[in-house]
Design goal:
This protein is about 40% helix and about 15% strand. With about 375 residues, the chain is an alpha/beta fold. The strands form three sheets. Strands 1-9-8-5-4-2-3 form a seven-stranded mixed beta sheet, with helices on both faces. A hairpin with a 2-residue loop joins strand 6 and strand 7. It is globular and about 75 Å long. The protein starts with 12 loop residues before the first helix and ends with a helix. The structure holds pyridoxal-5'-phosphate. Pyridoxal-5'-phosphate binds near residues 82, 129, 179, 181 and 192.
Length: about 375
Amino acid sequence: MSFIPYSRPVLDAEEINEVVDTLKSGWLTTGPKVARFENDFKEYVGSSYALAVNSATSGLHLALEAIGIGPGDKVITTVHTFTATAEVIRYLGADPIFVDIEADSYNISPKEVEKALIKHQNVKAVMPVHYAGQSANITEITKLAKKYGVKVVEDAAHALPTTHNGKIVGTLSDITVFSFYANKTITTGEGGMITTDDAELADRMKVMRLHGINRDAFDRFTSTKPSWYYEIVAPGFKYNMMDVCGALGIHQLKKAKHFQEIRESIAKRYSDAFIGLPVITPILVNQNDIHAWHIYVLQLKLEELTINRDEFIKLLSERNVGTSVHYIPLHRMPYWKENFNLSDEQFPNSSRISDRIVSLPNFASMTDEEVCIVIDTVKSLLLEFTK
Ligand SMILES: *Cc1c(COP(=O)(O)O)cnc(C)c1O
């Protein structure tokens, strides 16, 4: 029996042909394919601007830079995320204020966000993560942001397509950033997209995305300056997306909803199959919203089992099922823990949950047989090790 990987991308003939077309065109870097991808994406989420970047990490960095985050500033975020969410705060010399998650959705707790807003000086922004593909409580968070005069930057690396109260994630706050890393909901290999409705923020991010080159001077079609002329207005970054990646994105985006539907049906099969076993299956906060199902997280009821989570993962792997853990929370990572004096007691929900969770394979190219094998393997292990 062959190993079922945790994730595997779907790349069809359309993607391959589009990349070949790009290679044959001789234009590899940012060009017509990226422009098309940005336009399609803008229409998809209904935002005024969409800026393609070489990763979500660079997108988040540009977003925080554009809203003016700098040394001495503080940004509130969740501890239950990938380090990229928080590291970009440090890129700018600012400090993260970590808060705990909700026990049901594993998303950042608005209550904890408000406590942090009251307690800390110099907070300039809140960065929620739409954990696993279920939207964080953006209604509450944007309300708090308005009340305390701070900005909101959404880490939507898991959230395409995701809705919050019926509205698609991408236009719900100041800036939203998506990821197209190889295992994300759609992929360009490496890549990301920033969306915003704010013209000034979009302008700043566009300039900073490519070396601080002033676009108006650079745009040879509208500028009165000669085509070789450009101006540097800031020490910018090199965060543009290649056309090779844009070529993939154009076709992946068209399948985003289809991929989501497959992942949702796999998630439903998992949750139905695990009823009555010593586990907590994913909890939907709003039944009417779209969950991107980027990650299917199973929580073990350790009190009812004779093995722990690590042993469970090892046994699954020995029985050819690949898994992952989302996440080892940041308060347990040496850098964050030591430099920001973090401990388990400050984040009871994240600490408790992260000892108990395992992410099962859930990707659009999973075969029916693979889904059945995962279900049978998980079920038989849980039955075998129930107290
Ligand atoms: C993947 C991921 C990122 C980083 O995305 P890249 O495109 O790899 O930079 C950021 N935040 C979260 C929550 C992620 O899962």
